[in-house]
Amino acid sequence: MSMMHSDPVRRVFKALAATLLCLHCCGALAQSWPAKPVRVIVPFPPGGASDALARMVAQKMGEQLGQSFVVENKPGAASTIGIAEAAKAPADGYTLLLAAAPFVITQYVYPKLPYEVRRDFVPIGLLQTTPTLLVVHPGLGAGSVADFLKLAKSKPGQISYATPGSGSLPHLIGELLKLQAGVDLLHVPYKGGGPALADLLAGHASSAFLSPIEVNAHIKSGKLLALASSSVKRTPGLASLPTLAESGVPDFESLAWFGFVGRAGTPADVLAKLSEHLQRALSSADVRSKIAQSGDVPAGTVQEFADLLSREHLRWERTVRSANIKPE
């Protein structure tokens, strides 16, 4: 065979050999995973509820798999710093990201992010979902959602709602309520949830959307009044509280949620193993009990999380664009 003909043949054989080697390595990776500690990036500060949730579930998964799951906090810029860090990681199952509502919301608020969540990540499973509560200062004089909406319509742009900042989940929930109920509320952003809650308690703000764990004690003491939850159906922990959907705002739904995602391109066997052990962790009695204290325990399946993410993208893309929300 002449050199002219043998070179292309050699190239074909080299390419074939490289492909087989790659397939062999990927198969070996999937079979041996996890052969080293797994990073879990939490894009929020240490010590908060999301950090505690990630650590608890990661520890349980590590116990099951006989390998360390090491949580790394990468807070800042509405969680985009941590998400960007995870987006740069290899697609090998050794880096997970704790995703929450900002994982979706910031994709539409910030125009030039160094990642695209639907392209760069794949769902592994949900850890927790929880509704937020529409709470008001007792001095507002609104004892129900109907009262609140009537008051808002009679005083357009005067009834305020406090949030942890522009583009935050409570801000978006308020904008969603404005769109669906046809009311004009005044958004007052603060630098975090603590100052927003403090001003609401002091009566400097009229209302807010906050998590049950943030406001339960203040509701019991009578310092705040809970009007409704943001879930579409009543949840077991809030069975006596009506939802916005049943209080004059049909189909209204917004949940705070947390889930694990991995890098797109991670071997399917590794993703399946991660999903399986996440579901096992969530089904253990101690983890279920702790999660149920502040929210609802999901099934933890990939499909459940994928369906939720699809709904979240539709909801928040529409809301951000309709309200013309810009980064601070």
Describe this structure in words.
- The protein is α/β, with parallel strands linked by helices.
- It folds into two domains: 37-129 and 256-323, Bordetella uptake gene, domain 1 (D-Maltodextrin-Binding Protein, domain 2); 133-238, Periplasmic binding protein-like II (D-Maltodextrin-Binding Protein, domain 2, 3-Layer(aba) Sandwich).
- The protein has helices at residues 3-32, 49-65, 80-87, 101-109, 117-120, 145-154, 169-181, 193-201, 212-220, 268-283, 285-292, 302-323, and strands spanning 38-42, 69-73, 95-100, 121-131, 133-136, 160-163, 186-189, 207-210, 225-229, 255-263.
- The strands form two sheets. It has a five-stranded mixed beta sheet, with helices on both faces. Strands 7-6-8-5-9 form a five-stranded mixed beta sheet.
- Helix 2 crosses helix 10, helix 4 (101-109) packs parallel to helix 12 and helix 7 packs across helix 12 (302-323).
Task: Describe the structure concisely for a colleague.
With 328 residues, this protein is α/β, with parallel strands linked by helices. The chain contains twelve helices and ten strands. It has two domains: 161 residues, 3-Layer(aba) Sandwich (D-Maltodextrin-Binding Protein, domain 2), CATH 3.40.190.150; 106 residues, Periplasmic binding protein-like II (D-Maltodextrin-Binding Protein, domain 2), CATH 3.40.190.10.
How are the secondary structure elements laid out?
Blueprint: H1 3-32, E1 38-42, H2 49-65, E2 69-73, H3 80-87, E3 95-100, H4 101-109, H5 117-120, E4 121-131, E5 133-136, H6 145-154, E6 160-163, H7 169-181, E7 186-189, H8 193-201, E8 207-210, H9 212-220, E9 225-229, E10 255-263, H10 268-283, H11 285-292, H12 302-323
Parallel strand pairs: 1-2, 1-3, 6-7, 6-8
Antiparallel strand pairs: 3-10, 4-10, 5-8, 5-9
